[in-house]
Structures are given as structure tokens and as C-alpha cells.
Amino acid sequence: WKPTTSIQGASAVYQMLKVESLSVYCNPSVHELLGSTPGLANAAPYTWRNDMKRGLETFSINNEEFDFMLKPILAKLKVIVNKSNEARVPKLLVDFVLQDAATQLSRQQYLGLIELVESFHRINMNRPYREFHPGVKVSDNAVKWWKYALKGVLKQRVEHYTWQHVQKHRQ
């Protein structure tokens, strides 16, 4: 299993996928990076990238250790695809090796994930009404927000009786 280029017309293709230090972490109590450091909001994009690379090397950001949900794993997948037409020869051989996969979920991580799912649910529920969104703060223009609410209710109640909706429903 040495890296080489494939030979044209070979009867077998060898592929290998190696995953090193794959991990998932979620630090629900970590302070925001933007705003916590003066001038970081105006920093160049590569600064943020360098901070993330440094964090992956030390498993910490701003001296706060990563709270892993999936600890770093090492996995190797070897695949042999046989192109010959012989029935006795298997077409696909797969060898998968996974070393020490450990998962854990703290209460704070669980609650953070529940909040994330709920926020996606709210976004999805609000999606049909985004076209009516006024784009201003409620305190700045209450009239526009009342019109937004009215249009949302009318769309929900009147849409079922439009000719387009009836035609779509009949199909």
C-alpha cells in the first residue's frame, strides 16, 4: 500500500483512505472569540485560521481545553476493486480498521445541542414568512412589524383557497 499512480487497464484498483485525529468537540461554556480580544473582529481572515490551526495542535483555544464529544480517532480503509469478469473473484474487498473510538456527551453539550436543534426548527418554521420580513428592529418601526404579522396570518389562512393551491392539490 504505497502511494502510486494507477496503471491504465489494470485488473484491480487499490484505494486507501487514512483518517488521523478525527474528532468532534463542543465547548458550550467557551467565551466568544470575536469580541473577547480587542480588535479581533477586524482581524484578517488568516489570523482566525492560524488560531484554529494552533488550537488543533494544542487541543485548546484561549487556554481552554477542548470538551470532546468524539475523542481523536485513527481509522484506515483499504479497498480493492477487481475489474475482471471472473465470477470466482470478488469484485470488492474492504478492510476497515478503527482504533479506540470513544464518545462522551456532557450535560452542557447535550443542552447546547438541544438549543441548536430548536433554533434550526424555528428557522425552518419561519422560512415561508421570510419574504414578508420588514428588516428593521421592532422598536424602530412597529407598524411594519404589525403588517408582517398580518401578512403571515393571511398567507396561512387564505393560501388554501387560492386557485393555484387548489390546482396543485388536485394533481
Please compute the radius of gyration using only Cα atoms.
27 Å
SS-derived structural category: alpha+beta
- Order of strands, main sheet, comes to 1-4-5
In this structure, how is the largest beta sheet organized?
3 strands, antiparallel
Low-pLDDT parts are: none
Strand content: 15-25%
Helix content: 25-40%
Sequence of secondary-structure elements: EHEEEEHHH
User: What's the rounded overall pLDDT mean?
Assistant: 86
Q: Quaternary state, please?
A: single chain
Number of helices: 4
Q: How would you sum up the global shape?
A: flat
Count of distinct strands: 5
Distance between the termini: 56 Å
Keywords: Transport
InterPro entries: VPS13, VPS13_N
Family: Belongs to the VPS13 family.
Domain Chorein N-terminal: 7-171
Written description of the protein model:
There is one protein chain. The protein has 171 residues and is an alpha+beta fold. Helices cover 35% and strands 24% of the residues. The chain has helices at residues 45-58, 107-126, 142-158, 163-170; strands at 12-25, 60-61, 64-65, 68-82, 92-99. The strands form two sheets. A three-stranded antiparallel beta sheet has the order 1-4-5, with no helix packed on it. Strand 2 and strand 3 form a beta hairpin. The longest helix has 20 residues, at 107-126. It starts with 11 loop residues before the first strand and ends with a helix. The model has no long low-confidence stretch (mean pLDDT 86). InterPro entries: VPS13, VPS13_N. Keywords: Transport. This is Chorein N-terminal domain-containing protein.
